[in-house]
């Protein structure tokens, strides 16, 4: 948008320097810029709505394959509790043994799913860190090999020179 505005200003300045120009071209360009700005604003709003919806869905699905199962289980538990509340069965002080076992099992399953999701997230995070470290080590490893070769050649050249100097020294001593 800013580029188009600058281009419009540039064209207006150029038209003025030439001694005027058809105002229709300038008007058309201004209309086009305003239309593009309006379209851009509409698209920005639509994008914002989409992102907010996606964020809500991601929070609901817990970002894991077990996420929808977790939601179904909690929905099922809520329905079960509602049916117990609305049923004609009189509740005598506590829940029957069978129902309490079911709720305990459901609570344990729910806890297990939540724990599994957090462990999966941690494992994915650790895998990403490991990959980063491995790539860093590979980069450093390549550099060390290159340095070894470079300085190995230099060391070999220095040893050759040393031998040449020794030979010259022995030749000078013999004279």
Automatic annotation (TrEMBL):
InterPro entries: Kinesin-like_fam. Keywords: Coiled coil. Residues 116-143 form a coiled coil. It comes from the Eukaryota. PANTHER family: CHROMOSOME-ASSOCIATED KINESIN KIF4A-RELATED, KINESIN-LIKE PROTEIN KIN-4B. This is Uncharacterized protein.
